[in-house]
Amino acid sequence: MGSEQAVAKKGLTGQVRGYATLIGLIILSWGIFKVLTPSNFGSAANMLSYFQSGLIAAVGAMGFYFVMVMGMFDFSIGANIMLSAIMGCVIASRFNMGYAGLILGSIVTGAIVGFLNGIFYIKLRIPSMIVTTGLALIYESIANFMAGGSSQILPADLRAFGKMPMNLILAFAAFAVAYFILNYTKIGTYTYAIGSNEFVAKNMGININKYKVLAFVISGAFLGVMAILTISYGSSMLAVTGMASMSRNFVPTMGCFFGMAFKKYGMPLQSIILGEFIIQIIFFGFVALGAPTAIQDIITGLALLIIITLTTKSVKGEVVK
Questions:
Q1: How would you write the chain as a 3-class SS string?
Q2: Where are the domains positioned within the chain?
């Protein structure tokens, strides 16, 4: 009993440290840009807007976490979001299925894309980065075909998920599902087991390939939810080709890095939400400063690398997996 209490206390202490670090980074990021541009940055209304923008990417990042924690990667995130949003929009508007078409079309499409990623990865036995990069080109072409070469506009009466409170409800519902899967199901247990040591997990009788495919499916479904939020917020989705969709990979991936960094504190999903909030604060801070896009990307990338490096620095004597 005493040892269990000690473990629980240690976990609680770690979470307190993790939350303190993230909140400190939020305050620091806000403070720097508030000093530099006090008139058009960081008001209460602005911060709420930044948080809502961060939640959109956080939903996708929570799904991607299932893939990344197993040591795999996905370069088709942007293509999945684009294809899922277009399919959801097409089914909702052209087939008059309304919100049911938008939700089911986007999530099912995302899950199918994830399933294809997982199957091709398992069957071809080549790195996931290579597989998903090649498949991203195919998904972009399919999205372009479905869109007919033009931007798909979501009808005004189907944009409830683009503003409060429906965007918050959908995002936190996704968070609750991800939290439940990770902490209270066999899928979550096996996900961590495979990510910790695939060889040991295989010797324990875990079907490695099955759960890797399942990780991609879960990731794809969450990217489908992100697609709903994205097209509802922006009202349209343009199909692009030539790997241009990869620009959508960056923000969810960086949020997932926060999850990986704070996994040691037992709060990966919470850190993804707060991490995406930090990313949005930095991004909108540079927008408020009027910095050129290239400079924004360089400094934002460097800042996030520093943050991740500092938060993932191992304790002396600790084994990093």
A1: CHHHHHHHHHHHHHHHHHHHHHHHHHHHHHHHHHHHCCCCCCCHHHHHHHHHHHHHHHHHHHHHHHHHCCCCCCCCHHHHHHHHHHHHHHHHHHCCCHHHHHHHHHHHHHHHHHHHHHHHHHHHCCCHHHHHHHHHHHHHHHHHHHHCCCCEECCHHHCHHHCCCHHHHHHHHHHHHHHHHHHHCHHHHHHHHHHHCHHHHHHCCCCHHHHHHHHHHHHHHHHHHHHHHHHHHHCEECCCCCCHHHHHCHHHHHHHHHHHHCHHHCCHHHHHHHHHHHHHHHHHHHHHHCCCHHHHHHHHHHHHHHHHHHHHCCCCCCCCC
A2: 14-311
Going by pLDDT thresholds of 50, 70 and 90, the confidence category of residue 308 is low
Per-residue pLDDT for 247 more than 90? no
The pLDDT-based confidence of 39 (bands split at 50, 70, 90) is confident
Residue 73 to residue 242: CA distance in whole angstroms: 20
The whole-number average pLDDT for the span 44-63 is 94
Whether the pTM exceeds 0.70: the reply is yes
Quote the CA–CA distance of 195 and 189 in Å, as a whole number.
Answer: 10
The pLDDT tens digits of the residues spanning 73-86 come to: 999 999 999 999 99
What is the pLDDT at residue 16?
A: 87
Q: Which CATH code fits 14-311?
A: 1.10.3470
The answer, yes or no, to whether residue 144 has pLDDT greater than 70, is yes
